[in-house]
Amino acid sequence: MSVSEALERRGGVATWGQLVAETSRGDLERAVIDGSVVKLARGRYALATAGHALKSARQLSAVAVGLSAAAHHGLLLKWQPRRPQLVVPRGRRVSAEAQLANDVSWRRLPDRAVQDGWILHPAFAVIDCASRLPFDEALAVADSALRSGAVSWEALEEAQAVWPRGDSPRVRRVLGAADQQAHGPFESVLRAIALDVPGLAPVAQHRIDVDGAFLARVDLADLRLRIVLEADSFEFHGLPELMDKDCKRYDELVVEGWLVLRFSWNQVMTKAQWVRSVLERAVATRESQLALAA
To answer: H helices of 78-177, where?
Structure first.
């Protein structure tokens, strides 16, 4: 796996230790030298997405919005924008070449939404993504913004109130589902899929106790149906002691009556229809079991 691929899987931002564990120290150093990866702070790295947006925004006197703004603010994304996402005032002429290199739209932005003259404030970036992106991508941005502390609920509500179409069903749905407990885009996207399954009510980062003693903290859990959903990265599963720990954890959950479903990054990010079908069948199975037990 390349450093860029490792960063993409983590939402665009990662620590030195995470990247070296998944690639190598030499790979990371080369990626920084060739400009595909940038160092945000000591021990913290990101894809060069934000830098591309800054350059293009200044060249076109535009404002970076959507995923480009979210990436600049260090938020974790399902997918990085392939081109800088920019807004220019209505009536502004933009060359065909610039339109090919950038994702340009023409609209008016609230004055208070723009920070430093070229980028959306983090709260407005969240609302912009919620109003324009698919639910799973927008939810990943909102979760990350809340978890990182880049925005507060109060800031989101204020941004929503002045944003054009800020009260649209799309925005309300994302804000209604956003959860600062989510650990990253992988988990956020899995939750987005689960929220589309009738009868399933996933709770993020749920703690499960048995007889007053801690058993496990799981990525997602439906408490009524006793279904656990795990966004399984397999990050360190090559270590025998951690494999043993995982096996014990899942076995204990199963014998306590939980149905444990584990999904890989590739399945969640690229095979959402199959993941949803599995969840739908799991709900049907549990509903039948509950009906028989009643």
So the answer is: 96-101, 122-132, 135-148, 153-162, 169-177
pLDDT digits (tens, 9 = 90+) for 195-232: 999 999 999 999 999 999 999 999 999 999 999 999 98
Number of domains in the chain: 3
Q: What is the pLDDT of residue 42?
A: 87
What is d(CA 262, CA 127) in angstroms, rounded to the nearest whole number? 31
Spacing of C-alpha 225 from chain mean position: 25
Domain that holds residue 89: 48-179
Give the angle 273-74-162 at the CA atoms, nearest 5°: 85
154 and 125, same structural domain? yes
Q: How far apart are CA 15 and CA 41, in angstroms?
A: 10
**At which of 143, 158, 179 does a domain end?**
179
d(CA 283, CA 277): 10
Same structural domain for residues 57 and 26?
no
* Residue 95, phi then psi, degrees to nearest 5: -60, 155
C-beta separation of 166 from 127 below 8 A = yes
Same domain, 148 and 125: yes
Instruction: Note whether 16 and 109 are same-domain residues.
Output: no
Query: 127, 155 in Cβ contact below 8 A?
Result: no
Q: Are 87 and 109 in contact (CB under 8 A)?
A: yes
DSSP letters for 191-256? HHHHHTSTT---EEEEEEEETTEEEEEEEEEETTTTEEEEE---TTTTSHHHHHHHHHHHHHHHHT
Q: Do 229 and 159 share a structural domain?
A: no
Do 129 and 142 contact (CB within 8 A), yes or no? yes
What's the pLDDT at 236?
Answer: 46
Burial class (CB in 10 A: 0-12, 13-18, 19+), 143: buried
Burial of 201 (0-12, 13-18, 19+ CB in 10 A): middle
In the predicted structure, residue 234 carries a pLDDT above the cut 60: no
Indicate yes or no: pTM above 0.85: yes
In this structure, are strands 203-210 and 213-222 parallel, antiparallel, or unpaired? antiparallel
